[in-house]
């Protein structure tokens, strides 16, 4: 195997097992029975076949229901009546939205500058 000066992951001894290592690995794999295939546990969703639900230009099935039914605006039942959970996220562009975004960035990339920005934003 060629040595790669810049690739530390390829210089590992794990790439070339010691003498007898492959036989020991094969024996270890035979000693432990394999589990069931994970594909058996995943329920298969029945998807509609294109065209099965009827023409896209067919008459509506709910002629007395306003087009805004399920929306948080306009006539008709709101999102809770339609079974849509209400998102309690702050309004985009609000100060609380900014604080939550900075907090999310800080959780991924912690650094003292982001921490001080969060402190200033939360204290105002």
Explain this structure.
- The chain is mostly helical.
- It has a domain at 92-124.
- 30% of the residues lie in helices and 0% in strands.
- The protein is built from three helices and no strands.
- The protein has helices at 21-31, 95-108, 112-123.
- Helix 2 runs antiparallel to helix 3 (112-123).
- The longest helix is centred in the last third of the chain and has 14 residues, at 95-108.
- The protein is flat and about 75 Å long.
- The protein starts with 20 loop residues before the first helix and ends with a helix.
- The model has no long low-confidence stretch (mean pLDDT 79).
Notable characteristics:
single chain, 124 residues, mainly alpha
Spell out the blueprint of helices and strands:
Layout: H1 21-31, H2 95-108, H3 112-123
Helix pairs in contact: 2-3
Q: Could you write a compact summary of the structure shown?
A:
This protein has about 120 residues and is mainly alpha-helical.
């Amino acid at each position: 195997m060629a040595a790669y000066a810049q690739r530390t992951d390829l210089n590992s001894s794990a790439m070339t097992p010691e003498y007898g290592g492959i036989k020991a690995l094969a024996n270890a794999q035979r000693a432990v029975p394999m589990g069931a295939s994970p594909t058996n546990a995943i329920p298969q969703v029945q998807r509609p076949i294109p065209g099965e639900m009827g023409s896209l230009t067919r008459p509506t099935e709910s002629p007395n229901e306003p087009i805004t039914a399920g929306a948080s605006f306009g006539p008709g039942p709101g999102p809770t009546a339609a079974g849509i959970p209400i998102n309690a996220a702050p309004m985009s562009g609000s100060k609380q939205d900014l604080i939550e975004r900075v907090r999310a960035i800080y959780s991924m990339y912690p650094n003292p500058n982001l921490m001080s920005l969060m402190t200033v934003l939360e204290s105002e």
